[in-house]
Amino acid sequence: MIKRRPAVKYLLEDRPANLLAVSGLGSCTWDLTASGDDARNFCFIGAMGQAGPFALGLALAQPDKRVVLFTGDGEILMGLGALATIAMQAPANLAVLVMDNESYVETGGQPTATASGTDLEAVARGCGIATARTVTRDDELESLRDFMRSAPGPAFANVKVAAEALPLAFPHSFDGVTAINRFRGAATV
Amino acid sequence: MTTKPGSDWHRDIFDVLLAQDFSLVAHVPDAGHTPLIKLCEAHNGIDVVTLTTEEEGVGVVCGAWAGGRKGVLLMQSSGVGNCINAIALPIICRIPFLTIVSMRGEWGEFIPWQVPMGVGTPGVLEAMDVRVFRADRRDEVGATVDAAAKLAHNTRQAAAVLLSQKMIGAKQFKEG
Hints:
The complex is a heterodimer. Chain A is of the alpha/beta class. Chain A has helices at 4-12, 27-34, 51-61, 73-77, 81-89, 120-127, 141-150, 176-187, and strands spanning 19-23, 41-43, 66-72, 94-100, 103-104, 110-111, 131-135, 155-160. Chain A is 38% helix and 20% strand. In chain A, 51% of the residues are buried. Chain B is an alpha/beta fold. Chain B has eight helices and six strands; from the N terminus they run H-E-H-E-H-E-H-H-E-H-E-H-E-H. Chain A binds chain B through residues 22, 42, 44, 46-62, 65, 79, 81-82, 84-85, 88-89, 176-177, 179-180, 183-184, 187-188, and chain B through 24, 26, 47, 49-53, 55-69, 71, 85-86, 88-89, 92-95.
């Protein structure tokens, strides 16, 4: 079973200069932060369901940057319609990675819909994102890294990860203004 | 303005958006916005993002701003309720956010189901710390959008322009 924290760190090692990362609230924000503080990261700590639309707007505004969204199954399930909106816009520079642990770990591990049959790759395909895959094994992470960085977007990967309650790693500021100002400065270079 | 303000109030909005360098329009369509959406679709410099639900537009507009572009969310008053928690994003990050809302349920409305959110819209927006502007006459639409957009972007606030149903004209439905 893939361990999410080392996986995210691996995926972002030696990242290209033009890679902007957005994380959905909860575990993905702690994972992204634990991979190393970077001004090119924007971490949601609330507004559940908004990370996908935010990443879409960012990708449309910065077509020469690669935008990678890391979010959870719970976060994306809150607004699955965003996948249809992303497919309709078809930004070539956007990759969506769902770290799917099939549960709401932060609130006690209640199962999400992916635990009982919801197939997010199929959802993405059904929404019109043809470049979609599911990753379940560590030996697929290398190809996932290439996919995340360079597959023609919109690209979608559902990454099945272990349900682990990991130590929280807080982003450099909980203040939204501080966070967005730093990110915008890096994103618009 | 290319013509007398109000003679084509959709175009007045369009002219303001262009003059202030808006280049992304996110919307859940509404008849009250249709002529403006058509103007935007016909313009090469504007990305038109059709949403499945209005709250996506909050994230899209905020993400676009993080990437250096100005966007606006067009929606009907019924969509405002869908946006409530999403508005936390522009509020807590002080991202300039502009939405233009076509009002239903307030003036000659035909459909009862439009009334609750029509009545609730100003209060919901104010409760979420959004600055609320209102245009009741066609000749003030352009100036109102201009003022709201400037306030949003100059002072990094969330602003909404409510286009009154009295001004837009209430749609009457006929069976058959």
